[in-house]
């Protein structure tokens, strides 16, 4: 993408939280001895990741008039994330997430999002967020789960479309954040008609076409990200028919796949590393991908950068607090043979 002078490189839209991570890797959730206080929420993580990679990132979220909100804003300001578009919602509370770390495949988490401030992003907040002055708008799928943030997200995408600002939707499927899991698909499909790039895991893509609860295998430990059965090829095909420019499928340790409307599929290998915690890896991928895309790189190289950032984060304890800096991640890629 050709670089033009804009107020922001990227505006990310959606949830933000304080994240309380288990201090003891491997401890069963009910026996966690204590917690590290980090920050989280997919759009927040992506904004921090983009900022550390040298992009001008603005986060459009909401925080409560509380100490958790102060904690979140303090962290963002230290990370040079633009916080001008984060309203303090006096009638709501900043959200929180509690997370366990039980590698290799158990990372239970519990959301505290009743009356959360980031769900109160309103139309006026969007109108004053300068989306027309951005080079990209990134939206979290969870921002579509209720009003007023849902209508506001549609407006944000409309503003972006009118001003030739590409829109990236990170599906960000969290089953327990929807009144009916099927509503995620109905809403996200409607939103995708305003989107240029869709980013998600295979499970999230299947969730966008979920119609029967028999397709679900919901673990008590991971209700926010259930296993979903279905025809992934058909789901990919249906998303591409909605008019998006590309669908990026995150495939974990395998890397990523790029699917284009003409049927082209590119497989982009990942970077093998020892996994400590997979939470936040997808957000780091998104930040790396956005960095590449806004620097005019092709799909393959942009995804390769995303894979590198994701590989870095899975070796760490947390999400935004551990996302890589531009110099370090480029050196990592070079040490692994380059792009």
Reported by name, the CATH topology of the domain at 10-173 and 269-335 is UDP-N-acetylmuramoyl-L-alanine:D-glutamate ligase
Secondary structure class reads alpha/beta
CATH C-level category of the domain at 10-173 and 269-335 = Alpha Beta
Overall radius of gyration: 18 Å
Oligomer: single chain
Residue windows where pLDDT falls under 50 for at least 5 positions: 219-223
Helix content estimate: 25-40%
> What is the strand tally?
16
Range of strand content:
15-25%
Major beta sheet, strand line-up: 4-1-9-10-11-14-15-16
3D shape: globular
| CATH homologous superfamily descriptor of the domain at 10-173 and 269-335 | Ribokinase
Largest sheet: 8 strands, mixed
What do these coordinates show?
32% of the residues lie in helices and 19% in strands. By secondary structure, the chain is of the alpha/beta class. It has a domain at 10-173 and 269-335: UDP-N-acetylmuramoyl-L-alanine:D-glutamate ligase (3-Layer(aba) Sandwich). The strands form 4 sheets. The chain has an 8-stranded mixed β-sheet, with helices on both faces. Strands 3-2-7-8 form a 4-stranded mixed β-sheet. The radius of gyration is 18 Å and the shape is globular.
Short summary:
The protein is of the alpha/beta class. It is built from ten helices and 16 strands.
Keywords:
32% helix; alpha/beta; eight-stranded mixed β-sheet; single chain; UDP-N-acetylmuramoyl-L-alanine:D-glutamate ligase; 339 residues
Would you spell out the secondary-structure blueprint of this structure?
Elements lengths: L9 E4 L3 E6 L12 E6 L1 H11 L4 E4 L2 E2 L2 H12 L9 E2 L5 E5 L9 E4 L10 H5 L9 E4 L8 H14 L4 E4 L10 H12 L4 E5 H6 L8 E2 L9 E2 L3 H9 L5 E5 L4 E5 L5 E5 L11 H14 L4 H15 L12 H10 L4
Helix pairs in contact: 1-8, 8-9, 9-10
């Amino acid at each position: 993408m050709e670089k033009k002078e804009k107020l922001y490189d990227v505006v990310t839209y959606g949830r933000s939280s304080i994240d309380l991570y288990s201090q003891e890797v491997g401890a069963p959730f009910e026996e966690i001895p204590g917690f590290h206080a980090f920050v989280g929420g997919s759009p927040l993580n992506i904004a921090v990741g983009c900022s550390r990679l040298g992009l001008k990132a603005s986060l459009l979220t909401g925080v409560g008039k509380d100490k958790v909100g102060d904690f979140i804003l303090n962290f963002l300001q230290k990370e040079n994330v633009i916080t001008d578009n984060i309203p303090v919602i006096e009638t709501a509370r900043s959200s929180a997430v509690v997370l366990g770390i039980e590698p290799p495949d158990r990372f239970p988490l519990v959301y505290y999002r009743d009356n959360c401030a980031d769900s109160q992003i309103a139309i006026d907040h969007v109108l004053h967020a300068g989306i027309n002055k951005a080079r990209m708008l990134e939206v979290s799928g969870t921002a579509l789960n209720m009003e007023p943030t849902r209508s506001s997200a549609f407006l944000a995408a409309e503003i972006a479309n009118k001003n030739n600002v590409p829109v990236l939707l990170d599906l960000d499927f969290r089953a327990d954040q929807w009144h009916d899991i099927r509503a995620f698909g109905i809403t996200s499909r409607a939103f995708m008609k305003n989107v240029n790039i869709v980013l998600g895991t295979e499970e999230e893509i299947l969730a966008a076409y979920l119609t029967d609860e028999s397709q679900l295998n919901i673990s008590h430990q991971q209700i926010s990200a259930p296993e979903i059965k279905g025809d992934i090829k058909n789901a990919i095909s249906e998303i591409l028919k909605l008019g998006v420019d590309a669908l990026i499928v995150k495939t974990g340790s395998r890397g990523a796949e790029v699917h284009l409307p003409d049927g082209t599929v590119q497989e982009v290998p990942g970077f093998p590393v020892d996994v400590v915690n997979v939470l936040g890896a997808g957000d780091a991928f998104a930040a790396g991908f956005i960095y590449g895309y806004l620097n005019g790189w092709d799909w393959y190289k942009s995804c390769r950068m995303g894979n590198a950032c994701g590989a870095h984060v899975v070796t760490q304890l947390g999400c935004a607090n551990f996302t890589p800096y531009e110099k370090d991640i480029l050196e990592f890629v070079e040490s692994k043979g380059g792009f």
